[in-house]
Amino acid sequence: MQDFGAAFGLAFELVLRADGDLVEIVLLSLRVSLSAALLACAIGLPLGAFLAVSRFRGRGTAIVVLNALMGLPPVVVGLLVYLHLSRAGPLGFLGLLYTPTAMIIAQTLLITPIIAALSRQVLDDLNAEYSDQFKAFGLSRLQAMRALIWDARYALTTVALAGFGRAIAEVGAVMIVGGNIDHVTRVMTTAIALETSRGELALALALGLVLMLLALGINAAVQGVRLSAERRAYA
């Protein structure tokens, strides 16, 4: 077990000199989480817009289910993906288990309900304001969805950043489907868990520092988007 003071010193040294292993883990984390966030936005934003502009039997139930899925346990998502991608699963022939692709799939499934539910809330309020105008112009449902997404683009950017922040902090699902394999599927959260269990605190603290800086950066970006949207609204 390393001395805490020495461990912090080594952690800062690893970050400042851009240690090779540290950079590799951080870059893989960013690649996996950014890919998952983009895929989740491609699915979740249209789904949220559809629920915002549509009125159909069972819509309330669909919204309740979607909101419930926001709290879906990550280990359950990881288990479901594992069962589908394992050799005995229906998608086992693809050979994706214990690869970054499997981790992207798991994170996408985890954050898509979050993005869809939050975007639905944003666009529902906006649709209530614009629905009469949409009817007057004779816009189709798809045209209304596009108009809402464009008008709410700053708020939806905040939603997307929230999804990315949730993805990059995930550990349970990616541990199950990725296996935490060195130089293959080891990301920041799983590496922190492993190094801490080993008692090797330097790399764990360095990765934790990078993760905290990323979290601060995401929150700063969210705040910047909000301030930009407010300035444009009052301009």
Automatic annotation (TrEMBL):
<feature type="transmembrane region" description="Helical">
    <location>
        <begin position="33"/>
        <end position="53"/>
    </location>
</feature>
<feature type="transmembrane region" description="Helical">
    <location>
        <begin position="154"/>
        <end position="181"/>
    </location>
</feature>
<dbReference type="InterPro" id="IPR000515">
    <property type="entry name" value="MetI-like"/>
</dbReference>
<keyword id="KW-0472">Membrane</keyword>
<feature type="domain" description="ABC transmembrane type-1">
    <location>
        <begin position="26"/>
        <end position="222"/>
    </location>
</feature>
<feature type="transmembrane region" description="Helical">
    <location>
        <begin position="201"/>
        <end position="222"/>
    </location>
</feature>
<feature type="transmembrane region" description="Helical">
    <location>
        <begin position="97"/>
        <end position="118"/>
    </location>
</feature>
<feature type="transmembrane region" description="Helical">
    <location>
        <begin position="65"/>
        <end position="85"/>
    </location>
</feature>
<dbReference type="Pfam" id="PF00528">
    <property type="entry name" value="BPD_transp_1"/>
</dbReference>
<keyword id="KW-0812">Transmembrane</keyword>
<dbReference type="InterPro" id="IPR035906">
    <property type="entry name" value="MetI-like_sf"/>
</dbReference>
<dbReference type="InterPro" id="IPR049783">
    <property type="entry name" value="ABC_perm_TupB-like"/>
</dbReference>
<keyword id="KW-1133">Transmembrane helix</keyword>
<comment type="similarity">
    <text>Belongs to the binding-protein-dependent transport system permease family.</text>
</comment>
<keyword id="KW-0813">Transport</keyword>
<protein>
    <submittedName>
        <fullName>ABC transporter permease</fullName>
    </submittedName>
</protein>
